[in-house]
Structures are given as C-alpha cells and as structure tokens.
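Supplementary notes for students who missed Thursday's class. We covered one full example, reproduced here. Read the sequence, then the structure, then the short commentary at the end.
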Amino acid sequence: MRLKPRPATPSGARQLARRHPAALLALLLCSIGGALAALALPAALGHTVGRLVDGGPVPWAGLLLCAVLILAETGLDACSAVLGTSTTARLTAHLRTRTTARVLAAEPRRALAVPTGDLTARLTARTADAAAAPVTAAGAVSGVLLPVGAVIGLFLIDPWTAAAFLLGAPLLIALLHTFTRRTADAGADYQRAQSVIAHRLTEALEGADTIRAARTGAREYRRILEPLTTLAAHGRRTWTVYGRAAGQSALLLPLLMLLVLAVGGLRLDAGAIGVGELVAASRYAALAVGIGALTGALGALARSRAAARTLDPLLALDPLPHQGLGPVPGGPGHLELRGVGVVQEGRDLLTGVHLTVPGGTSLAVVGRSGSGKSVFAAVVGRLLDPDTGTVLLDGVPLAAMDPALLRPEVAYAFARPALPGTTVEDTIAFGPWTAGPDAVRDGARAARADGFVGLLPYGYATPLTEAPLSGGERQRLGLARAFAHPGRLLILDDALSGLDTVTEHHVRRALDERAGRATRVIVAHRLSSAARADRVLWLEDGRVRATGPHEELWADPEYRAVFRMEAMEATEPAEPPDAPEAPDAPEAPGTSGTPDSPGTSGTPGAPAPPLPRPHPEAMHGAEAR
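Structure (token representation):
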C-alpha cells in the first residue's frame, strides 16, 4: 500500500505570505503609514495656508506639522522600498527551493515532461515574478488607500468638489480594469515565447558538438531566434497596452483635475470654502487622480499571476510514493523483475520482463539501438517506475523503499555524466553522501582517472572551468563518482563507451573486484563487456530475446550480429572473463561513440529503427540525486 501523495502546494500570494508574515506586516504598516501621512498633508497644508491668508502671526505649528508629515511620508516610503526588496528576495529563494525540491522528488519521467529550457525559465525568471506577488499586494494597499482617502477628504471639504470628481470615476475604473486584463494576457504570451527560446537554446548547447560537426550553426541560429518575432510582437503589445493606458489617463486625469478646480473656484467665489480649503481640495484631487502607483501594482500582480500559473504544474508533481521501507541490511544486491513493463506516449519501451540477477554477480544488457537498454537501467535503480510489474532488491519492492534509504545503495554512471561541484574533487565526492578524500582518490584510481587528474594545474583542487575534459575523461570522472559511493548495486548505462581499450580493461578489472560485494548491471555495446559478464540480457524491441552466459548466446548468429562483427565470422565464444584483453577479441569499428573509442550497436548493413527514448535527461540528469 502506497502512501497518499502530498497535496499540491500552489504558488499563490497567500501561500507565500505565510513564509515571512512579520516582514510583510511591517511592509504593510509602513505602506499604510506613508499613505496616511500623504493624506494628512493636504489638510495640514490647507489649514496653514488659510491661516497665512487670514493674516496674524506666522503659524509655526502648522509649518512644523507639514514638515513632519513630509519627512514621515518620505521615511516610510524608503522603509517600504527596503522591506519590499529584501522580502521579495527571500520569497524568491524560498519559491525556487520549494519548486526545485518538488521537481527533484518526483519521478524523472513526470518532472521532465516540461522541456529543459522551459523548466529553467520557470525555475529562474518565473519564480522571481511569482514571488513578488505578496510584496506587490502589500504595496497596492497604499495605492488604493490614497485615491479612496482623497475622495473622502474632498467630501469633508466640500461635497460639490467630490461630486465633480466622481463624475469621471467610472471612466477611471474602466481604464484600470482594461489595463489589468490586457496586461495579464500580454504578459502570459510573452513568457511562453521566452520559454520556447530558452528550450531551443538549451537543445543547441547540449548538441553543440553535433551542430559543429554537421556545419548547421547558421540554421540552428535561425531556429533559436525565430520566436523572437513572436516575442517582439508580444513585447510591443505589452507596451501598447501601457501606452494606451498612459495616453487615456493623460487625457482623463487633467480633465478631472480641471473639473474639480473649476467647481472649487466657483465654491470659493460663493464663499462656501476658503483659500486654504481650495488648496487642500486641489491636493486631494491630485492624489485621487494619481493612479500611477496603482497601475504599476496591478500590472505587477498580473505578471505574478501569469508566472504562478506556470509554476503550479511543477508544485503539483507527486513525489515518488513509498511505504517508508528500507533495503534489507547487508543484502547482496539480489535483483528480481516480475512482469516489468514501461509505456510512453503509447509505445511499449519494455514489455513483460521477467528476470533474476543473483546478488554480487554482473549482468550485461545488450541489444540494438532502441531496444530498451537505458530504460531497463533506469527501472532497476528506480530512476523510472514501471507502469506494470514489480522490481525487488533483496526481496523488498523498490516502490516500497524510501528514496532516501534506497539512493545510497545504488550507484549510477552514465555515458554523458553531469559534473556538479566547483572542483574535480567536488564532482567525484558528490552523491548521496559526500565522499571523503581517500574515497575520492580510490574511486579515481579505480576509474583510471587519477593519471589525468594529476596532470591538471591544481590536481583534484582544479576548478572544473579550468579543466578541459574529453568525452572519455568526463566518463571516467562519472565512474570515479560511482566507485567513491559503493552500494550493493552499481549500474553503468553505456558508461564505458568513451574509454579506449586499455582503460576499459582496467575499469572492468575494478568492476570484477566488486564481485560478491555488489551487483553490477552494465549496458554494453562492446563484445568485451558482454564476454566478461556472468550473464547477458539480450533485449529486442523492449522484450527479452534471451538470457544466459555470453558463451551460450554466441552460438546464435543474430546475437553475434548485434556486435557487428564484420572482421570475425567465427562461431566460437570469446575468451573467458578472467582472460586479459587481447587482439583476438576484436570490436566492431565505425560505430557510435567518441572518436577514440568506437561503440558497437546495430546490425550489419541496416540499423534497426530506434524507439523513442523516455527523456534522456531523466537518465543523465537524475544521477545528481
């Protein structure tokens, strides 16, 4: 029985406001205080001017009160700005952390349904926009309080001047409503266009070598920048909305001011109000029509709502369900798959896989491109949950294990490893726990990375930005990280493809030394990797074609064809796993891999049609968990 998933946590302003209530309350009080000081100033100024016009002694008390109100308004506005900036920064950090944690806690297949570039944009720019909502809402209180208080002040001075202002109030409200709605629509469309550009740019960066080799840089340049036309259109649309609102307000507001002053002048001429009251009425009218702050706040809130809508699907991701169980203490890494199947976009990536891998043994997974090898590697380490069937580790279902307890027991190495951390030592030490210096160096020696690391300017302390690494060297750092975090299960997803023959031989010897202590699952393209394994799993179109020792499978010509043995037609098996690597066990040339390390996949003459892969980022990026 699985635990009930946590409910979705929306990114709305009320949810965020609970994070820093004291700061937001202080901001609200400062904002309200500044608005009250601004509303009190016209009354004090009008009273002081009235005293001066009437003659008599200079009203020093009134002048002092006006000065105090001006200083209070200025100081409280400054405090509001400081509190708003700092609180927005803290809320942005919290929202980014919460959203990122939600993405990392979910199954990679679900989390990475959002394209990488779009996901990056949401976790950076969108979180900043959404996190600004509570601060903007707190500041908008003063934006509402000022015009409302100004209208009340007009009523207290003279109802006729207030009535004159209210004649144009419906037009003002309609202007604000239209501006808010159009700004929200334009902002959402602008954000979507930004996400498309970010996604295409990320794709191009990840495939830079391929683009360079194919000489398609100009075409990629045009493809990345093609959405700029749409982005520019949405940008112009946004500024058009602002421009129309500014133009309409520039026409409407002076007319309202003129109407209020005209009525006030008539009331002054009739003796109903004095000069000081006319001055106060004019100031209140200016506050009532000064909707610039309110317009800006409404526009910011519209952008925040649009950004929050893009974050809600990420915050609604369910974490990997489990029953809180942990692996059996001291288990040998016995793997069992019962009817495992994986379906994606209507395609069967794995179907009915039944398999038992004894603890401490090695399993080579072979097959043509698209046969489901990487999907199998992801399923056995729970980077991917199967749609049908069960995977057990030492008799405990992976789906029942707490990921925090399972992850230290599983080490992954990939063909294109991510290299987090600042230095070379940091990236090897990175994992479920931080490996110590001795474990880092032992892992590097096992992966044959110690030699080239020693040639770097600062050895293991060399920053990664100053360490030019080839594809094979990056793979060796990924292998070193896996060796530095020993568990009961070690999974290599094509992690030897970038190694030369001699280096691969030494790495396989290090893998063999773990026999009996860890189960090794090796996605293999080379004949030598399959020959050294205790058992081979042969996949074809997501189904188990055959399992058994390499020597037995070698009798099948279709199995031999998997390795594209163009230079060898013998039907006898390769040398046993204990024998050293020799030229009489050749590998197929001219296949995929790095230039100095040919891979082996496909069949002679015509490659098999590939099946769609389930998000390679899920396979390559999830190792950082």
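Commentary. Residues 1-10, 565-625 have pLDDT under 50 and may be disordered. Residues 237 and 387 are 45 Å apart (CA to CA). If anything here is unclear, bring it to office hours.
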